[in-house]
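Much of the work behind modern protein science is quiet bookkeeping, done one molecule at a time. Below is the pair of lines this work produces for a single protein:

***
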Amino acid sequence: MPACSHTSTSDLDKVHQDVLYGQLSGAEDDAVLMVYSKTANSYQNCTGTLVAPNLVITARHCVSNYVDLKFTCDSNGNLTSGPGGQMGTLLDPSAIVIRKGTFQKPVALATGTQIFAAATSTMCQNDIALVVLNQAINDLPIMPIRLYTGTQPGEEVHVVGFGLDADAGFGVRYARSGLIITQVGSSQFRPVGDSIPPRLFETDGPALCIGDSGGPAFSDHNAIIGVYSQVVGDCTAATARDLFTEVAPFTADIVLPAFAAAGFEPWLEGNSEPGLYGTGGSSGTGGDSSTGGATSTQSASGGATSLDTAVGGAPIGTGGDTLGPGVYDQGPPSGGSCACRTAMNRRSGLGALLAMAAVLGLRRRRLLTRYG
């Protein structure tokens, strides 16, 4: 599944590549896996990353039901027009399967038992989730994560994902380095952000596409600082803008509770091993506290988080329009439907997937969103 798309341009029937202009990723990326799930009406494929032996971080829309339709967001994170853009109900965790290999020859490793996600009702912001697995995957690496400092414009990131390519290949892991963060939305780490929705950051130019949703953006310290959420415009166009949900703003309400449920501590950026000690970031202060962290704000109406920064992490409980985290270890809660991402409908089968390459523009940025 791809990322949600919002844009003001029309969808183009173009064939896309996985992690556009990237390279086949090697063993250094073996923590990056496929997130396969069954929704109410179809099957979908995304990307996720092991941050503990039994814990995967991905995009919320990758573990939700949704309707793949166009939508528009404004710079405050408000959903301003549809018909899409509604975040769907979370899936039953057991419907989520973590795989390695390729889409054609996947190897199932584990299934979900709990989903930790913000209770957002739209695709415009807060598109992040962590899935606790039914068993540890001990033969694969885990990755460090940035929890106590925000991202900054000018930072360089590299991305990894499984996506559809120009030869109708799908589910092969690719990576690309050298992307530069051009804009960062407001958060408790950045009270005055750029003109994109809160708790998102942006890279410009074609990079990610269908199947890459939920994939990691790594810092130059090789720590996860964001997960791929959505794209403005056609993902292959020179004017494409990829949007990632920052991890750090969700530390207290989503990330640390998920680690606690998994029974592990995070591996903080800049440290040599897991554990809540040290600075936990390449810039900024704090990281010694297991309680310090950013507030996760869920909002259908949007708005920047109101916040006070503090040494050791942002305080808990401040912020606008907070609906609170959702932790679901049984069936999905009641709610709306989501509109973003490209799902692979199993009823169509692999043959349809390949045929779909010819009309790829269709399943991918059907959600055109733009900032108004």
User: Anything to note?
Assistant: The helical segments are 251-262, 349-356. Confidence is low (pLDDT under 50) at residues 1-18, 282-326, 328-372. The first helix runs from residue 251 to 262. The chain has one domain: 4-363.
